[in-house]
Amino acid sequence: MTPDFLALAGAIALGVLFWVFWCWRDGSSIPRVVVKTGSTTLLALFAYLAGGPLLLVAALALSSLGDAFLALDGEKWLKPGMAAFFLAHVAYVVLFWGLPLAEKNWLVPAAQFGLALGGVAYVRWLSPSLGDMRIPVFAYTGIILLMGVLALRLDPQYLLVTIGAMMFVASDTILARQLFTRPEGAPPQLVSSLLVWGLYFFGQALIAWGMIAVAA
């Protein structure tokens, strides 16, 4: 087995392990941080070893840093985590901007408009619950919607990348509701937590796999 395959297999193993045992629980522990961070770190390593674009490697590495912050206990780690993911989306935006585009048709702008409108409406609904996180959340929403809009216009050969990007957006949509509307002291909702991690991790894996498959 090649090193890149081993890295991908390790990433999936850790991603599934975190999905089953930790994603639906509050609290912080060394195994939780190591497994969560390790899954996306190995995705970044896979992208690097497989000869993927450096912007892809950077986006995955920054996502891993964000995972590390969010795996720690306490609200003080939320802003650093958001900042790391913001930079990851900047890397994705630059990466997607330079990729081939789909042929012109009405479906692409319609999907882009729907995504943008839905995102704006959602964050407006969420706004009263944000408190002093309003500006960071608005900024983060803007960059992830831009990432999603650019992913929707990609050539069909990048279909896995587009699907992965939409899964990432869906994950963050559910996560925002968990973070900002859950009553204080209430336990995480099992289904929502499973969706957040499943959509996020496998969305990232699809982006990485989709980019590598086209470049091969």
Word description of this protein:
The chain has 216 residues and is mainly α. It is built from eight helices and no strands. It has helices at 3-21, 30-49, 54-71, 78-97, 107-126, 134-152, 159-181, 190-215. α2 runs antiparallel to α3 (54-71), α2 (30-49) packs parallel to α8 and α4 packs parallel to α6 (134-152). The longest helix is centred in the C-terminal third of the chain and has 26 residues, at 190-215. The two termini are 17 Å apart.
Which helices and strands occur, and which strands form pairs?
Layout: H1 3-21, H2 30-49, H3 54-71, H4 78-97, H5 107-126, H6 134-152, H7 159-181, H8 190-215
Helix pairs in contact: 1-2, 1-8, 2-3, 2-8, 3-4, 4-6, 5-6, 6-7, 7-8
Radius of gyration: 17 Å
C-alpha geometry: globular
Low-confidence stretches: none
* Element-level helix/strand string: HHHHHHHH
Number of helices: 8
How much helicity do the residues have? over 70%
Q: Report the strand count.
A: 0
Largest sheet entry: none
Structural class of the secondary structure composition?
Answer: mainly alpha
Tell me the strand percentage band: under 5%
The average pLDDT score comes to: 94
How many angstroms does the end-to-end distance come to? 17 Å
List keywords for this structure.
216 residues, mainly alpha, globular
